[in-house]
Amino acid sequence: MDFGNRFQAKRLAANPDAKLNPPMHHQSAEHRVVVKGTAEATNGDRVLILPEHECTFIPLDHVHRMADLRKLPLEIIEMQVGSYFVEDDIIRLENIYRRTARNELAQEPSLCDDSSPAKTHHSRA
Predict the structure, then answer these.
(1) What predicted TM-score, i.e. pTM, was given to this entire model?
(2) Residue 7 and residue 74: Cα distance in Å, rounded?
(3) Which of 14, 31, 81, 83 could serve as 68's disulfide partner, Cβ 3.0–4.6 Å?
(4) Whether the Cβ atoms of residue 17 and residue 117 lie closer than 8 Å to each other
(5) Can you spell out the DSSP letters for 6-67?
(6) Cα separation of 17 and 10, whole Å?
């Protein structure tokens, strides 16, 4: 969506009953805002239910995950803040979609593809 020297914004989406891989970052923190649907948000050792317009702040070194446990698609805006946004700062603790830094953008499932449960939409303005 957008990026600068100290931030990077992304739109994330998950189909019903899907969850995103749980990562951790050493060099960037995140704010995640639910813009559509209801998310089950894991943030460190806490699990929150976030309806539309609610958010969570994810500090450095916190394991985090968003899951869509409802029957409607989930859309989230992720705002990373920090000074380093390179793939090698993403520590994947589980890799249910078999993504790698090299093929992540090419292998992301499509929102329109019902056979694929989750999607990360990366676009830069």
Answers:
(1) 0.70
(2) 23
(3) 14
(4) yes
(5) SEEEEEEEE-TTEE---EEESSEEEEEEEEES-EEEEETTEEEEE-TT-EEEE-TT--EEEE
(6) 21
Instruction: State how far the Cα of 100 lies from the Cα of 3, in Å rounded to an integer.
Output: 22
pLDDT band at 98 (very low <50, low <70, confident <90, very high): low
Half-sphere exposure for 118 (CA within 13 Å, toward CB): 21
CA–CA–CA angle 36, 26, 48 (5° rounding): 35
pLDDT at 20: 77
Q: Which two tokens stand for residue 94?
A: 């589980």
Number of other CB atoms surrounding residue 45 within 10 Å: 7
- The amino acid occupying position 121 is H
